[in-house]
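hey so i finally got around to running both of the ones u sent me last week. sorry it took forever, my laptop kept dying halfway thru and i had to restart like 3 times lol. anyway pasting them below in the order u listed, first the sequence line then the structure token line for each. didnt double check formatting much so if smth looks off just lmk and ill redo it

first one:
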Amino acid sequence: MTYIDGFVAAVPKANKDQYITHARGVAELAKQWGATRTVENWGDDVPKGKVNDFYGAVHAKDDEVVVFSWIEYPDKATRDAVMKRMMEDPAMKNVPDMPFDGKRMIFGGFSNLFVV
């Protein structure tokens, strides 16, 4: 069954175009290496919570937008191979730098329960 890597980050509003360029570069390499799909989403209707929310999870500042994205793989073995290449392959040096604070990004790998 499909395996997913999910990401949430706070990106400065002024860096939207740079973010798209960076994310597209990563997505294209991930697809070449075995990912089946990458989905990038720019926060549009992200409510503030009373106890917790996306903003708090990534310590978003007033001038930042929450980005929610995921990369789909056919299985965990493919994901593990792609992640290894992302860390080691020289092609990643051609991807523009992250236009946000990567230390505040949250991410994780997820196995599907079901897809409708």
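and the second one:
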Amino acid sequence: MIGKEKARDRFNVTEDADLGYRLARDGFHSGMIGPPTWEEAPIDFRAWRRQRVRWIKGHLQTWLVLMRDPFRTEREMRFRGFASMQLLLGGGIAASFAHGPLAFVILAALLTPYRLLEPIDVILALTGYTVAMLASLSASALSRNWSHLMAAVTMPFYWPLSSLAALIAFAELLVRPHRWTKTAHGVSPRTRYPA
């Protein structure tokens, strides 16, 4: 049984992340449900931004709670779990903030005469982004789900926009930390899938 102190934080806006890490601290493990998932993605920019802001804000909340006492968290999760949390949760948060500035620097390095980056730096950054896009394209091809092709092609726009969502999430965390912006579901014109 989870102790009262570790019960779900009802103010965290990403309850799944919060609860998952609380369970991990108590020694429980979780697994993945195999695809397909019929979760509905946001269908317009406003809905996407609101969802990403809530997710990043909740991830920030979860990370800050876990890092309130990092030695205790490491002791409870063990080193491997603690390191995984830093890479997945902390790395995801850091990436959200870094993509926009990184894209700006890469574009400036490519389009201006200023030598902001060494050629190898530009090649390395572009290779990383290209590998991520190719992985997405490969997943679309392997699953024969061609509807995801557009998502793979538009990734270079998605990543900098995640920085916008991260900045809004950080501001909301300071001003309205417990505001829960729900995602509207049932608005996509997609075909209904059987239960």
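quick thing i noticed on the 2nd:
Helices lie at 15-25, 45-66, 70-111, 119-143, 149-153, 155-175.
anyway thats it, ttyl
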